[in-house]
Amino acid sequence: xxxxxxxxxxxxxxxxxxxxxxxxxxxxxxxxxxxxxxxxxxxxxxxxxxxxxxxxxxxxxxxxxxxxxxxxxxxxxxxxxxxxxxxxxxxxxxxxxxxxxxxxxxxxxxxxxxxxxxxxxxxxxxxxxxxxxxxxxxxxxxxxxxxxxxxxxxxxxxxxxxxxxxxxxxxxxxxxxxxxxxxxxxxxxxxxxxxxxxxxxxxxxxxxxxxxxxxxxxxxxxxxxxxxxxxxxxxxxxxxxxxxxxxxxxxxxxxxxxxxxxxxxxxxxxxxxxxxxxxxxxxxx
Length: 285
Known about the structure:
With 285 residues, this protein is mainly α. It has helices at residues 2-31, 39-55, 60-81, 90-112, 136-158, 160-170, 172-177, 182-204, 215-229, 234-252, 257-274, and strands at 126-128, 133-135.
């Protein structure tokens, strides 16, 4: 029972991380149809924000507050300087954001050096769950991820900004015709997605090796999550996170992480082949 509960909680931790990273990507890729290959670097920026705040004597919670702000700033600059000029040129967007990801990686290397950066969790102890003991910080991470997901769902479904986003997604020309500033809506949505990715980076920093290249793995997994679950759907995001995160966690106990990643990729390809519109959205065909 101890092994089963620990495995489930480890899977839930990874699912929570992928859900946050995928949530930001779902906004830019799933909702705005922008293939942003620099999305992983928003995660990296968030992690380095926590490291920087701690390195100058600040608390983890102050760093976690700075993480989404740092992600939002980088995302806002990227959208304003590059993305908004390429909405109608998807191939150019891929190339441009790939170049930006390399620039951000090199910039972080020049600023902080090559070595792994230590980030101390705010709580070192464990929590007794009757069947097992589990690190308290991981439980906090899961709780914050779930609250963030609920907050985003409420924002999109219950606010005027969410209505603007849904209107622009369905028909941009009609949205402009009724007076919605589509350029402003896209900019805010992209920045918001970058902020969520920055938050994910801040949360995962105590559990991961903080390096300038750490965002690459999260980018690949986030694309798996969004595509497998169903593009443009919060339910699909959750389904994709459970599929990728759960399968990865179970396989990591049995085989090497690299082989586990390869099997997850193969399973994702099969899932997309069987359900092209996603696990949540699509019907088999």
